[in-house]
Amino acid sequence: MINVKKLSHQFVLGKRGNQTTLPILQDISFHVNKGEIVTVVGKSGSGKSTLLNLISGFIRPTQGEIWIADQQVSQFSEAEFADFRLQHMGFVFQNFQLIPSMTAFQNIELPLTLKGEPEEKRKTIVMDLLDRVGLLAYKDHYPSELSGGQQQRVSIARALVLNPPLILADEPTGSLDSETEADLLELITQLNEELNLTFLIITHDDEVAKIGHRTIQIQDGKLLEGSNIQ
Amino acid sequence: MRWKDQFRFIRQNLKKNRVRTWMTIFATAIGCAFLIVLASVGYGLQKSIVKDAMEEQIVTQINVHGIERDEQFKPVTMKDIRYLESVDGVRAVTRRNDLYQIPRFSVDGYRTEASAIATHFPSEKQSGLTLSEGRLPEKDNEVVVGYNFSSYLASEKELDQKDIYDEQGKIKAEYRYDSPLLGKTLAMTVDKEAEEKVETHTISLKVVGILEKPTREWFEDQNVYITQAVLKDIEKFTGTYRGDPSADAVKDGLNEDEQTFDQVKVYATDLESVTAVSNQLEEKDYAIYSVVSEMKQINMFFTIAKAGLILVGTIAVLIASIGIYNTMTMAVTERAPDIGIMKAIGANPKTIKQIFLLESGYIGLMGAALGTGIAYVTSILINTGVPLILSMAFEEELPEGLQFSSIPPGLVAISVAICLIVTILSGLRPAKRATEIDVLQAMRREI
Questions:
Q1: How high is the ipTM of this complex?
Q2: Residues B358 and B424 in one domain
Q3: Neighboring chain B residues of A78 at a CB cutoff of 8 Å
Q4: What is the DSSP code string of B344-364?
Q5: pLDDT per position as a tens digit, A63-119
Q6: Which residues of B touch A97 (CB under 8 A)?
């Protein structure tokens, strides 16, 4: 599903003429199979979020290749990557990243709207998903009227709404209490088993790392020896 | 993303800051209204002047002044008349000659001096000349008189004794001829100067018709329309061309083809034929003038004037567009986190740009719609208020039907188009900025 080959990334700091480079990731290579849950762990500043951002196409790698669903996405233009994200990827963020002026229903509906799906179809799909994540009663609630756990469920529902084969999650339980976290992890496992979805989860939480079929460890921008790499 | 959803998005976004949105719409509306009202003055005055010109002249009429060939000007001859009559699309060719002296006309003890015009009545009839009463002359000594002729006939007894004129220079009612003129015999007296003596010659003419009232209120027709035979009779008496009493040269010996005319008017069968006939006559070097050519000049002048006014009005819309630019820039800044989220989940930069462009276009369209309404109200106020103010200030009545401001649908279309183009252009830069928003930076702001 995901094939990362010799990926390196560095940030350029300072103003023009007085610039320095800061290496974040160095020579990373790994593979994620379809239907797998792979967790990426590491300390803060190790580069795991940068790795996710590179795979998501939010930033461009300095070196190396990223292949997703047999396509070299690292060569895509911004518009091409946007279309690819819409079709093939779902995102779950630590801070949920819901649009505050939209209701739970509208937030989940957004990817369908962007894809240009007809209203009736959108309604059916969103209502199904709201039911699945247990938020049917909260469909008209705005994010500010939902708890953290509920917001993350809305976020997951939004990630699933277009049936993407790949879900990328950045610290999905980072803002949740332990009880809600357990519920969410159960939901992720369930979705993986039922829908054969691929999950790449960035976390520093051991409980989250445990649900992964494999775990990749990053330290100082490099894959740690002994990482469960395939 | 579907258009319907994009519009839903726009409405939702605009609702977030209603006051700001409405103030921007209002500023655009004022700019658009200014543009329309300013240009409407051009349209209004053009309409009034064109209407005026159309009323003054018959639209199918082409005046033929003569022939301009090899830098020489020749009057229209009978030979030309025959050619003019043969042109396709010509209904009638009227020809008139002025008598080169002002004869005296008297009837039943009343007298006036009036111009005499010799004309060819059969062609006048063909041209559609209408009478208020009576008929056109059939015999040589029959005449028709202008509508106002009788009001200038003053009592001969009082003529030299009393002040018979009122303040407006018209003959007072008590001295004016007030009997029906139709069927009466006019005595027409012409002069001839011969060796310091003035000889007179009187011709009896029967009034068989009275012309229609002139279309222009300020114009009075007091002429007497005589036959060519009467003119020849006078020429024979004076021995001069057109009966000029003081001319030396005696003009005679002309054959019919060489006879010239002072006023020649060609009447086209319909308005569509006027241009074709005009073009054909111009090709043959005839010096012509028609209401259509006058219209061309008037319209050319007003087209330039209107373009200038629209240009000046556009400046107001441009000023309003600064407001739109500001509003859209603020909107992009405020909505950066939302844009970041949308981009993250797969919104194409093109879609984001389109949403913002539509948003500025929506403001422009709303402003243009509101502005058009304001412009129509202002136009009504101008048309009712300005004549009132002017008549009060200058104590003068303005011509009836004078329109200062007119808003044709074309002007509304032009203004709305200008408004839309300007507003979309002003939203272009903010929309581009929206597409350039960095996803990570935008989402970090949300935290």
A1: 0.90
A2: yes
A3: 349
A4: HTT--HHHHHHHHHHHHHHHH
A5: 999 999 888 888 888 889 999 999 899 998 888 889 998 999 999 999 999 999 999
A6: 340-341, 344, 443, 446
